[in-house]
Amino acid sequence: MSKGGVLFLLYPLLLLALVLNCQCEERKLHIVYMGNKPEGDASLASAHHSMLHKVLGSPSSAKESLVHSYGRSFNGFAAKLTKEEATRISDMQGVVSVIPNRQYKLHTTRSWNFLNLTVNKVGAPQESNVIIGLLDTGIWPEHPSFNDTGYGPPPAKWKGTCGANFTCTNKIIGARYYNSDGEYYETDIPSPRDSEGHGTHTSSTAGGNEVSDASYYGLAEGLARGGVPSARIAVYKVCWSFGCGLADILKAFDDAIADGVDIISVSLGGDEPDDYFDDPIAIGSFHAMRNGILTSNSAGNSGPFPVSASNVAPWSLTVAASTIDRKFVARLQLGNGLILTGISINNFDLNGTSYPLIWGGSAPNYTIGSSSDYSKYCLPGAMSTDVVAGKIVFCEALYDGSGILLANGIGTIMADVLVVDPDFAFTFPLPATLISPEDGHKVLDYIRSTDYPTATIFVSDAWEDAMAPIVVSFSSRGPNAITPDILKPDITAPGVDILAAWSPIAPPSIYYDDKRSTLFNIISGTSMSCPHASGAAAYVKAVHPNWSPAAIKSALMTTAHVMDPRKQPDLEFAYGSGQINPVAARDPGLIFDISESDYINFLCKQGYNTSTLRLVTGDNSTCTSTTPGRAWDLNYPSFSLYVLDGQKISGTFTRTVTNVGAANSTYTASVFMPTTIGVTVEPSVLTFSSAGQTISFTVKVDGPAISQQPIMSGAITWTDGNHVVRTPLAVYNYIPGAPYNLESDTSYTTPAKKTVFKSSSIYHENGIMRHLKTRP
């Protein structure tokens, strides 16, 4: 063989050896947060490029690496770096942190009436000056909820703009989009336009116009509107079909602050909280606070597990989700006349016609290797079309209905041992209802004892829920894993079965390939409760434009409707101060205000050092005079006292209230706590002689040694005869930082068959259907 022939044969081996020995590492997106105040976009972008040049070695590499320069409201950039390059940049002067980019999850009218914010209480002229900025999946601008008829030009303070392929109006006054990865899936649109539905839903919940005769295919028909219908909306699209990038979230905060929004609504987050300055939402909301903007965050959909709340920074409003006085039920009737009631949003009308009823386990698709153990769950592809076609199928799992739909079935009755008492409903692409496991046994017994079993499923009815409000099962719970001295969540708001606007090109059910179209949808999540709180904050901001973010937050918390503790064993860890009461929040009487310097003092006590703080604040902030310790003196409108096992209950809190009510007023304190806990308020009477006057008081809490004690709680209430200013107080055993997550505990295992959805509807993205990924 010739030398050339030998080389030709050896070439693939040589190439393989080069590949195996190559130390080239793929560059991945990182966020470089530098904190200090910006000096202008151009100079900062140049400085960022220079830093990358020093690390990467050439101007061209630096240019290719740089994705975002943050410089409108704070300093930092996003760049594609290897781990080694990221480490070198983290050691450079001025760098606070380098955070690998990750994907966050999205956390969805009658609800405003349920909160007593009725139509006759909105519409004041100043409300059209309030701008709500939403970080989400974008918006569908042609939707009637965003019609700008009758609106004047945007407020003079507005400095925002519109992104590509999008035209702004006098209602939607700003729209930007961000995709640092540069990847787009089939349904993604490279513009602020919404193809997922989530952003359209949250935008209309917070500030959508009044739209009469709104419904989901005839269900929940009525007037749909936002909390402040005349508010302006600015959209920052950071979420796509695959998630929400951290680098894009931070850039959106940078722009929203500089654009001039008044409230920022963020219905997304991680599965668990991060250190404040490793979390782009905490970073962004800190700078928003510095600029007088309140950020409203969803608490997350990882409940009911404790220590699951995310977005827990004290300068933002953390919102749980609770029910309203309406629930959707879908009844079914068996051929023997038995009627059972399930939970479902079912718009499909079978006109009372009964169809053959079978058990999913009797219809396996043997051709693909399925068996009864799989087909009883009615998974896509696991079902025999020959058997399922034209029938209603009883399935032993809550799923998206696609398994039956693709097998040409008529409908599905579901019972799931993991969902014993469902407290929210799903929409499906075919007639469907979810019944209790107990009723599931009745259906299965009927099928097995009858020669020709039949059933029908009725269109959903809207029933009054007299138990409302109750915090829904999926809503993430406290205590606060990062700073347990701060009670989280702060508040709860409607987040269950909420009707609001929808993108007509987004799937209208939990089945991602549902090709139907609707302008309104009914969905659930802390994503839905968050814009309710954002709308309530905008409602307060309209009449108090000069109030600080902490003042607005305090007003919402101290005037909240008190939740019934008998219905919620985890108490304030579920609902915080209670359910929002927007009308009362406009006149709270007293507020607990917090300044930037107060938050800096708080951070010092949490262990941040002077150099880090100065990078964040850009000023001469120092921690030398602050001893690390508990956060009991942060002027927060709630009280949280965690105790290590075996220790006595003991803590002293300092608070200062500002009179925003009548100039001459006297407030008297009353305390409600379990008898084993002593609480002393000093002074217990506060007398004011002018508006804006401040008075401080202390709260001393004492009690016996406790161990393995869940939350015990009560409240301190100040009253003057006209106002009720209520602050919850929680006492419990906890080790700071201790997680509660069985999914990550290797000592806890169960035999499992993995069930993975083909793609992701909004419920799959936001984590509500997480438990369905693993079947027992």
List the helices and strands and how they pair.
Layout: H1 3-21, E1 28-33, H2 41-56, H3 59-65, E2 66-70, E3 76-81, H4 83-90, E4 97-100, E5 103-106, H5 110-114, E6 131-136, E7 172-177, H6 198-207, E8 211-216, E9 219-224, E10 232-237, E11 239-240, E12 243-245, H7 246-259, E13 263-266, E14 268-269, H8 280-290, E15 294-298, E16 317-322, E17 326-334, E18 339-343, E19 355-359, H9 372-375, H10 385-388, E20 392-395, H11 402-406, E21 411-415, E22 432-435, H12 437-449, E23 454-457, E24 461-464, E25 491-494, E26 498-501, E27 520-523, H13 526-543, H14 549-558, H15 572-575, H16 582-585, E28 590-591, H17 596-605, H18 610-617, E29 639-643, E30 648-659, E31 665-672, E32 678-682, E33 685-688, E34 694-705, E35 712-719, E36 724-733, E37 753-754, H19 762-766, E38 774-775
Parallel strand pairs: 6-10, 6-13, 7-10, 13-15, 15-16, 16-25, 19-20, 20-21, 21-22, 29-36
Antiparallel strand pairs: 1-3, 1-4, 2-3, 5-12, 5-14, 8-9, 11-12, 17-18, 17-23, 17-24, 19-23, 26-27, 28-30, 30-34, 31-33, 31-35, 32-34, 35-36, 37-38
Helix pairs in contact: 2-3, 6-13, 7-8, 13-14
Task: Describe the protein.
Helices cover 23% and strands 26% of the residues. Strands 17, 18, 19, 20, 21, 22, 23 and 24 form an eight-stranded mixed β-sheet that branches. Strands 7-10-6-13-15-16-25 form a seven-stranded parallel β-sheet, sandwiched between helices. α6 packs parallel to α13 (526-543). It contains 19 helices and 38 strands. The model is unreliable at 1-23, 742-762 and 771-776 (pLDDT under 50). The protein is globular, with a radius of gyration of 28 Å. Keywords: Glycoprotein, Hydrolase, Protease, Serine protease, Signal. Belongs to the peptidase S8 family. Pfam families: fn3_6, Inhibitor_I9, Peptidase_S8. It is found in: Secreted.
